[in-house]
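Incident log, structure service

09:12 report received: a user says their structure output differs between two submissions of the same chain.
09:20 pulled the input from the user's history:
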Amino acid sequence: MKLKKKIVLAYSGGLDTSIILKWLQENYDAEVIAYTANVGQEIDKKKIIKNAKKLGVKKIIIQDLKNIFVKDYVYPMIRGHALYEGVYLLGTSIARPLIAKDQIRVAKKFKAYAVSHGSTGKGNDQVRFELGYHYFGPKIKIIAPWRIWKLKSRTDLINYAKKHGIPIPKDKKGAPPFSVDDNLFHTSTEGKVLENPRNSAPEFIFQRTTSPEKAPNKPSFITINYKNSDPIGLNGTKLTPAKLLEKLNQIASKNGIGRVDLVENRFIGIKSRGVYETPGGTILLAAHRAIESVTLDKETMHKKDAIMPRYSELIYNGYWYSKERFKLQKIIDLKRNKVNGSVKLKLFKGNITIQSRQTSSNAYSMKKVSFEENKTFNKSNVERFINFHKKKLK
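09:34 re-ran on a clean worker, output below:
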């Protein structure tokens, strides 16, 4: 008896990937393996298993990647202070390379000939997934339904779902939902009323942050502890990367921190408007810049700032596994062993205020910056310094 070919589908259990699962079964003579990467999104294991089994899936894999996601993907990106187009903390972008890597691992384990994903033909994620697939499994076939099927619109999808008895979820207003991506680092919301940039984002779409107006009238104070440029604890208590980010999310969310409304330039050439919520990540970025300010020298800090836009663009475009990103990461991490200490922050109604920075590093000299007369800084050299730079104006 000839064994059926296998396809590993990145499966969320939701509408789109359930439709894709059924479509793959109808159009390919292959067994579909449902693969779900748990990167900290809201996940209903029972629902995923129930929906997949209802569609005839025999093998369902739900892989917990939360700690790996934060430690090996989010933290390196935070060390690079990555902000795409000066605003976006790259929450969706940074999760895709890890999901692609582990999906290929599963495909190799079960000797699948193909992998598939649910990214639309207009989005960035198709690029991010497929560059990751190619890096780890160049010989494995990629099936991208949105680019090849005859379903052209959301209405077509809903009709297809009704025909095959696939449940259609509703949003809080009883309509088909917004397009949402979430993980431990962020939540993004796109589509519907948000497509017109003239429209304000309705409050009901925000899923993980309190509005600054409704945040507590008293501030929260937290201290983040650092070792080798990564957070290792909160208020002196050591925590795993996933648990630390989880706690920061909770504290930041209640204080109205982490909302961004932006129109971004997608890699494939179109603009899109979305709302992003990155509560804990927003704190991590501010705190990391603060700890570096008292531990790193000017040249290293400015070099990092100079490469940041390119580094961010590479992540956004799906080039996490590229030689160029690896090279820039080496520059970013060159002196990470010097970045140790703690940062205390005040969180209040959407704002983050640095309260104090503590480190044993000698990069910051109290003697040199003191307004009291001292012999550690030769002010007579300043005139020569200015005269040298005057010549550069000509």
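09:41 both user submissions now match this output. Likely a transient worker issue. Closing.
09:42 reviewer note: The two ends are 83 Å apart (CA to CA). The CA atoms of residues 81 and 285 lie 6 Å apart.
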